[in-house]
Write a structure and sequence with these properties.
single chain, mainly alpha, 4 helices, about 60% helix, elongated, MSMEG_1276-like_NTP-PPase_dom, Nucleoside triphosphate pyrophosphohydrolase
Length: about 110
């Protein structure tokens, strides 16, 4: 029986059960949940880096966004709170749309 020891989507136990397999799960406390979200984010970012087409990239970005949604309540925030912060940072420092790549800065 393979051992996974990782955070999975909420309906995965149902999928496993429907396939006729047996499984073991437990519910994480908030601290563990956040730790596992961070691990899973890293995994999904790595998978995004390895994508070779638009559809796979969008699938991985959707997974990343889902993890962000899962982390927000742990930080007592909503997606709207996050958007306000994102917009304020964008207004102050810009976004990443133009692809500006900083090479070096000469000190005075």
């Amino acid at each position: 029986m393979p051992v996974y020891n990782k955070l999975v989507r909420d309906l995965i136990p149902q999928v496993i059960e429907n396939s006729g397999s047996k499984f073991t799960t437990r519910t994480l406390d908030l601290s563990e949940h956040l730790t596992e979200i961070k691990k899973k984010l890293y995994e999904e970012v790595q998978e995004f880096r390895e994508t070779m087409n638009h559809q796979d990239a969008l699938e991985e970005l959707a997974d990343i966004l889902e993890l962000i949604h899962a982390a927000l309540p742990i930080h007592e925030a909503t997606y709207e709170d996050l958007e306000k912060i994102r917009i304020a940072k964008k207004q102050k420092r810009g976004g990443f749309e133009e692809g500006i790549y900083l090479i070096e800065v000469e000190s005075e």
